[in-house]
Amino acid sequence: MEEVQYDVTKARQTKIKVGSFRINPDGTQARKKISLAQSEAFRTELLETVCERMNDYRLEEDPVTKEKTFKRFAPRKGDKIYKEFKKFFFHSDAYRPLKFACETIIEEYEDEIFSLIAQETHYLADKLCNENSDLCDTSNHTEL
């Protein structure tokens, strides 16, 4: 959900024109500006491609609690180091369970996620975990 939240937050800052290209009898067009996150095409593409980025995470173990969590290690597109980082190739099978879990969650809760983005809900992971599904326990909501 961190990847979805990141993309949605960025998309909310961009406005696009939507509406009909039909010209009304008075010569005007019925068009308005909305945030990119409100675009159905954006939301559909986001949910179709977000799981591909799971290889930007690695499995880490807390030295004290021995709890294992996935943490992002790769810079995001637009970060200063991104161009240099992409010159290297990292391959690990450790992210495959995360990618599978992501695809399963997206497939099972696609309508709920789509709706939360459309409602401009902040803290998508918390809303999905607490109100729309039984995915999370109360101890950790941000790592899906």
Could you give the order of the helices and strands? Answer: HEEHEEHHH
What is the average of the pLDDT values?
Answer: 78
Describe the largest sheet: 2 strands, antiparallel
Q: pLDDT below 50 for ≥5 consecutive residues: which ranges?
A: 140-144
Instruction: Give the termini distance in whole angstroms.
Output: 6 Å
Q: Count the strands?
A: 4
From the structure provided, what is the oligomeric state, counting identical versus distinct chains?
single chain
| Helical stretch tally | 5
- Give the class from helix and strand content and strand pairing: alpha+beta
Strand residue percentage: 15-25%
Shape designation? elongated
Strand order of the largest sheet: 1-2
Helix content: 25-40%
Radius of gyration: 19 Å
How would you explain this protein's 3D organization?
With 144 residues, the protein is an alpha+beta fold. Helices cover 40% and strands 18% of the residues. The protein is built from 5 helices and 4 strands; from the N terminus they run αββαββααα. The strands form 2 sheets. It has a two-stranded antiparallel sheet. A two-stranded antiparallel ribbon has the order 3-4. α1 packs antiparallel against α2 (40-49), α2 (40-49) packs antiparallel against α4 and α4 (96-118) crosses α5. The N and C termini lie close together (6 Å). Residues 140-144 have low confidence and may be disordered.
